[in-house]
Specification:
single chain; hAT-like transposase RNase-H fold domain-containing protein; RNaseH-like_sf
Length: about 100
């Protein structure tokens, strides 16, 4: 139904909105969460892309995934994001070893 499409669209958009809110804390630096946020959003949308429930959105999600990939690849030229993870008191090198070996 039309309302199901509206709800599905809201769900897809809310994924990006939730990630965006991670970058808006007023009293904490958020640079450390950039890589993790991109990866989380990419994984979430890849799952939706492959889900039959979201099949009518496949092209739109694929376009969004290409855009995420474009900007994610820019992290390779900006070591400050990796450094922010290394300096984070919780993550340090743990996430880097887990995610990238």
């Amino acid at each position: 139904s039309d309302w199901e499409c509206v709800n599905d669209t809201c769900t897809i958009i809310s994924d990006a909105n939730n990630i965006q809110h991670l970058f808006s804390p007023e009293h904490q630096p958020a640079l450390w969460c950039a890589i993790l946020s991109f990866e989380e959003l990419q994984t979430t949308w890849e799952e939706k892309h492959d889900s039959p429930k979201y099949s009518i959105y496949t092209e739109a999600i694929a376009g969004a995934l290409r855009k995420i990939g474009k900007y994610y690849n820019k992290f390779d030229n900006k070591p400050v994001y990796v450094l922010a993870l290394v300096l984070h008191p919780y993550y340090k090198l743990t996430y880097i070893k887990m995610a990238w070996g």
